[in-house]
Amino acid sequence: MKSLYENIHDMLCCHSLPNNYNKLDIKLQRKMKEIKRNASGQISFKSIDSIIMKFPQFKEGLKEIRGVFQHYDEDSNGTIDHEELKKCLHTLSFCIRDEEIDDLYYYCDINQNEGIQFNEFIVLLCLTYLLTDSSQTLKICSPRIEATFITITEVFLFLDKNGDGNLKRKDVVKALNEACPTEKSPSHITRTRFKEMDWDKNGKVSFKEFLFAFISWVGIELIDSDDECPA
Ligand SMILES: [Ca+2]
Ligand SMILES: [Ca+2]
Ligand SMILES: [Ca+2]
Questions:
Q1: Structure pTM?
Q2: Name one Pfam family in it (predicted).
Q3: CA 85 to ligand 1 center in whole angstroms
């Protein structure tokens, strides 16, 4: 359990890193807009139901990522530290510089200063894949993981109706209503789901926030019970 002092320290640390957060948020938003533009009209999902039907495949993909995580967590402490992460991304031959790895490490370490746990690792790997143009890398070493990331990206694009690279509440409401047009989802349920996703409470859900919500939606039971779940 963290002391009050440690919590305040974490908050201050968080505030001393706005440039990294900001930089990656903007980069990611731009990337999602670009993918949406290029994919216009070719998104395979038409409804929330069609997404839920893919859950077994998502789970298979997440299991494979778990294998990668365990392999690179050399001291098996349930956490990937800086050195383990560098080794992992370089061995998988992503085109990424050490400074970029550091930025992603802090960006994805949402419970801060405790290294990268499995759920953070899934997000980190997906963002590395999207932001570094290393699609060939992943295609060769794990087609299933690549397919999983592509499909998760499509889920986001399905929800991002106006294609601005972030999810607004009305996008999410609209998507949930499309799931069942005759029976509108009660607005408090939609509001709760949206609040769950919008961690930094800035009124919009970034792709990173969406990823954390999505993987817990697909199957949080994949994460070891002794791993602390940030939430
Ligand atoms: Ca470790
Ligand atoms: Ca962490
Ligand atoms: Ca947000």
A1: 0.81
A2: EF-hand_7
A3: 9
